[in-house]
Amino acid sequence: xxKNEELADLLKYSNNHSLWIVNxxxxxxxxxxxxxxxxxxxxxxxxxxxxxxxxxxKITIKVITIYVIDESAYxxxxxxxxxx
Length: 84
What we know:
Elements: H1 3-11, E1 18-22, E2 28-32, E3 35-39, E4 51-54, E5 56-59, E6 65-69, E7 72-75, E8 79-81
Antiparallel strand pairs: 1-2, 3-4, 3-8, 5-6, 6-7
């Protein structure tokens, strides 16, 4: 199976309106969009400490999670998910 086939196989199980996480208690939980995040460092028009809502979730060809916030795309690692 080549990389494109692997990615296609992975994406058939994904949903751009939810995200699966393991919470701090080790429990698997599905977050439905929109969910709240806090900005960890300045990125685009967002300032550190801002609280934003993730409208949808995407994935790059390199399998990196992207959050769509106010029609702009950001890598997930610029944010921390807030108590959902």
